[in-house]
Amino acid sequence: MTELGARLKEARVSKGYSLDDLQEITKIQKRYLSAIEEGNYSIMPGTFYVRAFIKQYAEAVGLDSNELLETFKDEVPANKTAQTVTATTNVQQPQQRRSLARKASRGSSDWMPKLIVALFIIIIIAAIWFLKQHNSSNDVVDEPKQQDVKVESTDVKTNSNKDKEDQTKTDTQENNADDTTQKEEETQQKISEGVLENDSVTTTYTLTGAKDFKIKVKVTGSTWVGIQDENGTEISNESDSYKADQMYSDGDELDIDATGHKSVRVRLGASANGTVYVNDEKIKFAATPAERYTQNIVIKFEEEK
Q1: What share of the chain is helix, strand, coil (3-state, %, to 5)?
Q2: Which residues lie closer than 8 Å to 253 by C-beta, 6 or more apart?
Q3: Element (H, E) at 160
Q4: Helices and strands of the chain, counted as H and E runs
């Protein structure tokens, strides 16, 4: 065993690697690894592989391969194959350069005729295109009447588009006028601010400027609802969703048409779970639900004269 082989084997053993382990790591056959440790380089495929296998072995066991080869260079056979390849390359380079020069010269002579043919085809295509453009210009000059017809047709289309635009503007103005009238009608309705009565449970509102008197109660939780007219009579028409005083649940919506009555009283058992609307306008409670759990909402209706 050489000193180089002993150094490598010592490093392998300190790492806890067997030759089988090292073969798996380096992908070098086990018999070559064993030959490196014993200094038996004769079974190697060549001197080039000796140095390459030693470097792989050293790096696998954590040694500096370059330092190791420099230290034990006398034990490692010289890389004759590399020297032979270098010499052969130096001899072949001038011949390869001459061969490449001949190929380049022959290649340029091959593509020159193709280039000339391509240029000739391009010139022919350009000439044909020019003749067609010239003929098209003459046709336009010889047909002035057809041009006049096209202009007239354009004028007709322009007038038609103008009529459509005028009609669209008229429709828009009419729609705006309708919207303005509707807004004016809506703004005529007025509900006074609520006045809290002496009993601290009843709040009175006055509705003016309206033709209809429709009450809506949206229920957002469990609450008792009672709706009475100015005589204290329950309002319950067949067409109304409200059916006398009773408990209602979240999601219920009660609609009462009170047109013809002078006033309506809406009693909410749990005022936090009910919202009152008059002609779709929300009533703002004078006393918050936290202040008054049960509330009476009285709406007096003053008809438009």
Answers
A1: 55, 15, 30
A2: 216, 217, 218, 219, 241
A3: helix 144-188
A4: 7, 11
How does pLDDT run along the chain (305 residues), one tens digit per residue?
789 888 999 999 999 999 999 999 999 999 999 999 998 888 988 888 889 999 999 999 999 989 988 999 888 877 654 444 444 444 445 555 565 556 555 665 677 888 899 998 999 999 999 998 887 766 554 554 554 445 444 444 455 566 667 777 777 777 776 666 555 555 578 899 888 888 778 889 898 988 888 999 899 989 988 888 999 888 866 556 777 667 889 999 988 888 889 898 989 899 999 999 999 999 988 888 888 889 999 999 987 65
Q: What is the 3-state secondary structure (H, E, C) of 204-254?
A: EEEEECCCCCEEEEEECCCEEEEEEECCCCECCCCCCCCCCCEEECCCCEE
Which of 221, 268, 267, 217 has the alpha carbon at shortest distance from 240?
217
Tokens for 91, please give them: 């001899």
Which of 145, 281, 270 has its CA nearest to residue 219?
270
Place of tokens 């007709």: 156
Alpha carbon 299 to its chain's center: 53
- Domains in the chain (CATH in brackets) are 3-78 (1.10.260.40), 190-301 (no CATH)
Residues 6+ apart with CB under 8 A from 262: 229, 230, 300, 301
Q: Find the radius of gyration of the CA atoms of the chain.
A: 53
Q: Please count the CA atoms within 13 angstroms of the CA of 216 that sit on its side-chain side.
A: 12
Helix or strand (DSSP H, E) at 253? strand 253-257
Alpha-carbon span 114 to 43, nearest angstrom: 59
Strand partners, 204: 195, 298
H/E stretch holding 23: helix 19-26
Q: Tokens 């209706």 correspond to what residue? A: 301
How do 214-219 and 253-257 pair as beta strands?
antiparallel
Cα–Cα distance between 47 and 75 in angstroms, integer?
Answer: 12
